[in-house]
């Protein structure tokens, strides 16, 4: 067997804040790049993890306190030059969660940055985030993916803002609502409305249970 | 650093044969599953490979004699259960080539199977191939991807057959030609036609050079 290769999982944890698509970074507690902000990540643990998704769930839980949100494999970044420790593989996943879950988390090591205003990050993390944003952008065009950023209940104007943040463009209200009808993933929340400043109250919606992913915040981070 | 993990690259090498989408398998020369047919693959060599794509090119060349055809990362398959040797990662790529290059290859260890008529293969290779077919199917709907299966020059009826094999459905001739016009990747080959049995000769096309990938067959396999 050839020489061992560093095998890790990194997670691009995305939220919407101030109507912008943002990424959650975590302060590194080890060398290299100790104390610098980077994507939450860690080694695969052959003893504990059944597969990569399992590793991503464990690492996300340890670093952010979040239990499995919407999580999908993005791409694998690998090579001789990306990590000063040696040849490394990172199987990158992206996760979408409601911002409130991050903002209410007690983990002081987490920070939030708009994806289009990032400083230079360690490793190839800028490139990884750019790839994730491109994937989200593409998928938002034809899927209910952005709904996972919207929290438990939301108005259609709010959901439209989220889609717009993902797509990087404004949408026509009528055609957006038609698209949502087509998708068929939403249901109204009986009797619940959102007051929207000077506007009339907006009906609240949620994902139908069959399209809902399991998401929970640990009372205290691990 | 935790215990080492087996780090490999596998390649789903696809061609069209008898108007069917087929995968090229290679006889394994090592345990586990020695002498069984499986996807061409191998260990990442930290000393030789700059990155995963580099590893895929090297392995494909060693096992099939093919120099870089159209090659794209598919997905990473990883876990404790997929390889009897232990926890393993396979960064899977897919490659599309003209069937003639495989059929004229002198490597006796290569065999060709329709993707929808595969026996049970070693590891999780059936699942990997199914994932590749799904990706090709999706991408064929909106890209020039199937052109890489068509060889140097081809008629539009031939290219339509290839698209149909990728998509798993028949296409309307008029709308197919309109789509190809829209894509704008083809150019006519001056004066060249293909005789098509009882039909009148068909104009030959090729990929415009800016949409062409580099592909070569070694005179003798390595």
TrEMBL record, chains A, B:
Source organism, top-level taxon: Bacteria
Domain NrtR DNA-binding winged helix span(s) in chain numbering: 147-207
Entry protein name: NUDIX hydrolase
Organism: Methylomonas rosea
Keyword tags: Hydrolase
Gene3D superfamilies per UniProt: Nucleoside Triphosphate Pyrophosphohydrolase, Winged helix-like DNA-binding domain superfamily/Winged helix DNA-binding domain
Lineage: Bacteria, Pseudomonadati, Pseudomonadota, Gammaproteobacteria, Methylococcales
InterPro entries: NUDIX_hydrolase-like_dom_sf, WH-like_DNA-bd_sf, WH_DNA-bd_sf, WHD_NrtR
Coiled coil stretches, renumbered: none
GO molecular function terms noted in the UniProt entry: hydrolase activity
One Pfam family hit: WHD_NrtR
């Amino acid at each position: 067997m050839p020489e061992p290769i560093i095998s890790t999982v990194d997670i691009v944890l995305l939220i919407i804040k101030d109507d912008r698509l943002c990424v959650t970074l975590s302060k590194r507690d080890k060398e290299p790049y100790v104390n610098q902000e980077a994507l939450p990540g860690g080694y695969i643990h052959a003893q504990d993890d059944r597969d990569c998704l399992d590793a991503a769930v464990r690492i996300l839980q340890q670093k952010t306190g979040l239990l499995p949100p919407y999580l999908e494999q993005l791409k694998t970044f690998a090579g001789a030059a990306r990590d000063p420790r040696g040849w490394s593989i990172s199987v990158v996943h992206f996760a979408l969660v409601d911002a409130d879950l991050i903002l209410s988390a007690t983990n002081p090591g987490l920070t939030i940055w708009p994806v289009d205003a990032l400083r230079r990050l360690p490793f190839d993390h800028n490139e990884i985030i750019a790839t994730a944003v491109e994937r989200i952008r593409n998928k938002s065009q034809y899927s209910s993916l952005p709904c996972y950023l919207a929290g438990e209940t939301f108005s259609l104007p709010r959901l439209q803002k989220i889609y717009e943040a993902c797509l990087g463009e404004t949408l026509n209200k009528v055609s957006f609502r038609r698209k949502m009808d087509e998708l068929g993933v939403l249901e109204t929340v009986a009797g619940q409305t959102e007051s929207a400043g000077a506007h009339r109250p907006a009906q609240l919606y949620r994902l139908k249970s069959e399209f809902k992913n399991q998401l929970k915040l640990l009372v205290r981070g691990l």
